[in-house]
Amino acid sequence: MATPRAGFHREYDPTFPAPDLTVCSLCGLDPCDWDNDNPFDFHATRSPDCSFVRATQQKKKHRNQKTRRQQYKRRSLQAVTQQEEELQQANAENTAENTAENTAEKASDNKATISKNTAQLSTIPRHMLSTVPRQITTQQAENDTTIWPAISTCLGNITLWYITAMSTQEKDLLRRSQPIGPLREEDQEEDRTVHIWTN
Question: How confident is residue 10, by pLDDT bands cut at 50, 70 and 90?
């Protein structure tokens, strides 16, 4: 199997002492003692001027150059796409950090202090709420005393905020940040409102 790839083929010659003969038809080389070597290496070292050897070596050289070019292109494309992904991720994190710092007023004695809202109820500025399409669905709350934080999920350019249960401070903040009116406790004894905004 290796001998045909090295340029050798079998010939039948009744005049030769051994009638079954393996030779190169182009240069006439007989691989009589190639037991330990690769037959192509043997052919290339013993008969470097053979047209089969030269053609095969040029073909291999061209193939190696082609694969090097392909590898270089592949590596450069991978680097570019990796940089783009890192930039997109950094942009998404920056916008989430910048818009998620909502403030809420908290009364203590006669002073109004500003505290950061850790629940991150909205990423949309208040002046834009009337222009953003809203969808309101209801969901059964398992435990009224448990406070579940809002969980954000980013899907491309869509940011969803799931609010499963809220404290009174969070309800007050949500009521102030939306033009849909106050949350009614008597209507929502069993249900909780889930607000989903899309960008």
Answer: low
